[in-house]
Amino acid sequence: MEARPELTRPVLVAAFRGWNDGGQGASLAGGYLAKLWGAARFAEIDPETFYDFQATRPHVSLVEGLTRRIEWPDNAFFHARLPGQSRDVVLFLGTEPSLRWRTFCQLVVDLAKELDVELVVTLGSLLADVPHTRPSPVTGSGSDPELVERLGLEASRYEGPTGIVGVLHDAFRRADMPSASLWAAVPHYVSLAPSPRAALALCQRLGDLLDGPIDTTELEEGAERYSEQVSEAVATDAETASYVEELEQRSDAIEEEERLPSGDTLAAELTRFLRERERDGGNDAAHEQ
Hints:
This protein has helices at residues 25-36, 101-114, 145-151, 164-174, 196-209, 217-234, 238-259, 263-288, and strands at residues 11-17, 40-44, 59-63, 67-71, 76-81, 88-95, 119-128, 138-142, 154-155, 179-187. By secondary structure, the chain is an alpha/beta fold. Strand 5 and strand 6 form a beta hairpin. Helix 5 (196-209) packs antiparallel against helix 6 (217-234).
């Protein structure tokens, strides 16, 4: 830690490159937020202990065309004041480690405790059967029932392999620190292209959780260009174009179903209507007498 920032009711927002970052949606969102909020770097985790450098190799770059510089896997903490709010945000942007995940997560938990973090939100993106021409669906989950209800999320029912995000949430749960996870869906047929549409959906949902809108103008413009470019590429292959059209129809049908009231809602409304009619009918009968 280079310096301990003075923070007010901070929220920790984390995003990792790697397994949790389909279409780079999560890392793109995290980088965008750091730029948008003018976040200042104040701490980092030394990569030496946590990476197999044969699997996650450092990069060599040139400085002013002469000096060679080694760039190691980076896990850095930034801080900024949330626009229009009296609270701060800590951004943790990094790369999923290769080794010692429990030790790695404990370092993050310890720092969050030291900074008096009130809520942890992780960003993730996953490949799914969704079309590139529709907004990216975002699912959310929380670590405890109270948080799930307060933020309008849902308890995670996923079973299977997990990434550093899942292990990090478990570490925060064990430390009795509330945490939430947001995941944006990315079209699997363009998995290698960075998805500003997924980053846009994550930032918008994060803004809802933080009770403050996030300026996503740049991401919205990027999402439009992304959709146009992918549509041009898809149009060159009839089979892929037909598949995308099928995904669009499925997405529109799901959206229409979500707009329709549930059976429980309809039953409650019908019961209310019958009771009101019975009451009004009784009043009318009394007046006639």
